[in-house]
Amino acid sequence: MHANVPVQFDHNGKLRHFLTIQGLSEETLTGILDIAHSFIDFGKREIKKIPLMRGKTVVNLFFEPSTRTRTTFEIAAKRLSADVVNMNATRMSTTKGETILDTVKTIEAMHTDMFVVRDRASGAAQLIASHLPDYVRVINAGDGRHEHPTQAMLDVFTIRQHRQDFSKLRIAIVGDILHSRVARSQIHALNILGTREIRVIGPRTLIPTDIETMGVGYVNNMRDGLENIDVVIMLRIQRERMDGQLIPSEQEYFARYGLTEETLGFAKPDAMVMHPGPINRGLEISSSVADGNRSVILDQVTNGIAVRMSIMAHLMGGQEKSRWT
Amino acid sequence: MDNAAANAVDNLAQQVASSLIEDPLLIGIHTGGVWVADILHRKIGFSEELGILDISFYRDDFSRVGLNPQVKASSLPAGIEDRNIILIDDVLYTGRTIRAALNEIFSYGRPASVKLGVLIKRTGRELPIQSDFTGMEMDLGDHQQAKLYRDNGKLGFSIDETGCT
After folding, report:
1. What is the DSSP letter of A147?
2. Which residue range is the domain that position A33 belongs to?
3. Closest in A31, A34, A322 to B64, CB measured
4. The predicted structure's pLDDT at residue A320
5. What are the pLDDT digits (tens) for B75-131?
6. Which residues of chain B are within 8 Å of residue A321 when distances are taken between CB atoms?
7. Model ipTM over 0.90
8. Scanning every residue of chain B, which has its alpha carbon at the shortest distance from the alpha carbon of A317?
9. CA spacing 20 to 30 A to A123: which of A252, A264, A279, B72?
């Protein structure tokens, strides 16, 4: 269901939905990042709105709780002059797909132009996209363990702000790769942009068994894993994973895989520290590193607005050629 | 520079220079307008840096045409609050570019005044917008397009048949 997602493109090959990073071209990613770059400046203006989506309606449909993702999507849409409706829906697990599609079709009947969807089921955004009329756009704001493509875009945008050339970068992703849709999207994006080396670091129980097929290497400890690393991406550890057999204890996890001043010392002296948030201080990252001068965690949040504006603008813009002087 | 273009630039520069606008701020519209404004900027000797507008995000045909992949960030280094602006574009045609440029300028703040200077003022207005300073005028049909080019720093223009209206 996830592979290559033809539904993401229209018959002219233009990006219609933003569901997955997988299968996108370097040109598409770079185009989104370039436009996002010109949106950065707008946040500093007296009037932050531009009229690209005036008269359009965006529905944020979140079946899972979210603060920063939903908020930055809302701000992004509003800066493009769209009208935004936030729906924090809860759905019953027993009825699954039927409920979600019924909900979406009901809202679509109110003439919605774009859905931003988060759901705990992998493939939810794609399912919705394939059941809507051609003119409705869908953005995946996180679907189960599958992907969180806009997060990956803002992460690579943030890296590009500080480091120009991905072909020179060694990047480590640390933590629970197995359950992380963020990591999956990041790995696709970093590979498409030609990153020199991607390593994942974490307990073997939290690493997909076929991880090497994604073009990354696995290292089971921080000392070897962070050697010569330019960018360290920490992932959030879900506390509910602590109860099972995946992680022995919080203390042991932090001792082995937490990012502290000491473990950061294994990486290059100018290594950047990233985290998609929300952070667990003292579980995967220490406060001094999270708040330190090598951390770009708050830049990531700020950049999320510009990057999501760019993605929305890319999906909404038409293709018809017109004469204009 | 081809002769007609050179004469038009001289003509425009002379009008702008003799306009007696107090402490003006020169702003060019990307791309052709910046070329023209750049020449005026040097000829007339403005001390302040040239302002640049890319109006892509303010166009009224975005939902039909989409975004230009090469949008440049606008740069108005001096700030525009209470300034007397001279806005420069290459060709004044439908007036929609100028409408978009005015909207963008006002998203930065409130200027004291805005005057418009264009190298070529052609026929075909769709909005009530006219230039204050004009390099040359042209009577062109709907199927014709006046296009400015720059070759080794020299400006010229061509009249192309677009084949559609």
Report:
1. B
2. 6-147+302-316
3. A322
4. 42
5. 887 789 999 999 999 999 999 999 999 999 998 889 999 999 999 999 999 999 999
6. 65
7. no
8. B66
9. A279
Contact B63 A317 (CB under 8 A): yes
Please report whether residue B44 resides in a domain: yes
Query: Of A179, A189, A246, whose CA–CA distance to A214 is shortest?
Result: A189
List of residues 6+ apart from A248 with CB closer than 8 A:
none
The answer to whether residue B93 sits within a structural domain is: yes
How high is the pLDDT of residue A89?
Answer: 75
**Same domain membership, residue A157 and residue A283:** yes
Confidence of residue A321 (pLDDT cuts 50, 70, 90): very low
Structure-token pair, residue B17:
């220079």
A81 found inside a domain: yes
Element (H, E) at A315: helix A297-316
Token pair for residue A275?
């985290």
The answer to whether position B29 is within a domain reads: yes
Model pLDDT, residue B162 = 82
List of chain A residues whose C-beta atoms are within 8 Å of the C-beta of residue B65: 317-322, 324
A28-43 per-position pLDDT tens digit = 999 999 999 989 887 7
With CB atoms and an 8 Å threshold, state whether A318 touches B91. Answer: no
pTM of the model: 0.88
pLDDT at A18 over 90: yes
Alpha carbon of residue B72 to chain centroid: 15
- For the segment A287-315, the average pLDDT, to the nearest whole number, is 96
Average pLDDT, chain B: 91
Q: Which residues pair with B115 in a beta bridge?
A: B86
What is the spatial distance between Cα B73 and Cα B91, in angstroms, rounded to a whole number?
21
Q: Are residues A123 and A157 in the same domain?
A: no
Print the domain residue range for B20. Answer: 3-60+73-161
**From A41, A47, A325, residue closest to B94, measured CB to CB:** A325
The residue of chain A with its CA nearest to that of B98 is A325
Please check whether residue B14 lies inside any domain of the structure.
yes
- Quote the number of domains for chain B: 1
- Quick one: average pLDDT of A281-286? 94
Coil, strand or helix at A233: strand
Q: Provide the number of CB pairs (under 8 Å) joining chain A to chain B.
A: 75
Tokens representing B19 are: 């306009």
Q: Given B57, B69, B165, which is nearest A52 (Cβ)? A: B57
Number of domains in chain A: 2
Q: What is the CATH number of the domain that holds A114?
A: 3.40.50.1370
Q: How far is B81 from chain A (nearest CA, A)?
A: 11
Residue A322 lies in a domain: no
Q: Judge whether A321 lies within some domain.
A: no
CB count within 10 Å of CB A96 equals 12
Is the per-residue pLDDT at A266 higher than 70?
Answer: yes
Q: Do B69 and A34 touch (CB under 8 A)?
A: yes
Considering the domain architecture, whether residues A39 and A63 belong to the same structural domain is answered as yes
Q: Are residues A110 and A136 in the same domain?
A: yes
Would A325 be classed as within a structural domain? Answer: no
B 102-131: CB under 8 A from A: 103, 106-109
Q: Are both A124 and A82 inside the same structural domain? A: yes
Is B63 in Cβ contact with A316 (below 8 Å)?
Answer: yes
Residues of chain B contacting residue A318, judged by C-beta atoms under 8 Å apart? 62-66
The answer on A35 and A104 residing in a single domain is: yes
Residues 6+ apart with CB under 8 A from B156: B1, B2, B5, B148, B149, B150
Residue B151 has pLDDT above 70, yes or no: yes
All residues of chain A having their beta carbon less than 8 Å from the beta carbon of residue B92 are 325
